[in-house]
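Hi C.,

You asked whether I'd gotten around to modeling the 124-residue construct. I have! Everything is below, sequence then structure, no commentary in between.
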Amino acid sequence: MKLPSYLVLGLAFTSALLSGCAVINSHSETKTYGTHVSQVTLDQVEVGRTTEDWVVATLGHPASQSDIEGGRLLKYSSRQLTKINSELLFVLDTSSRKEVNRTVFFEFQEGVLSRLWVEETETT
């Protein structure tokens, strides 16, 4: 019994998918804008000990700074854009985008860190 060619192609395609032999191409690209303050850096910071001079020497000049009662507030902002493209045997072609906006605030009293916090938003 001879099978129709469309059935043979369908079986071959299904077999390739099930056996893990499908050709998949995936590529991602991430770009960072601003000053990204990593968790590794934050782990080195200690309230009551870390100085404003150390933060500026480590991270560079902040995106903004404000004088507050008895001290100063430094703000470091970053934006990470990640674009992911995926192809599956030219049948499925997808792309997605993720954006992470992160702002780290350092509050100093008399030149010593008194408080810090992180605000982060993610959109896809």
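If it helps when you're writing up: The first helix runs from residue 5 to 19.

Thanks,
B.
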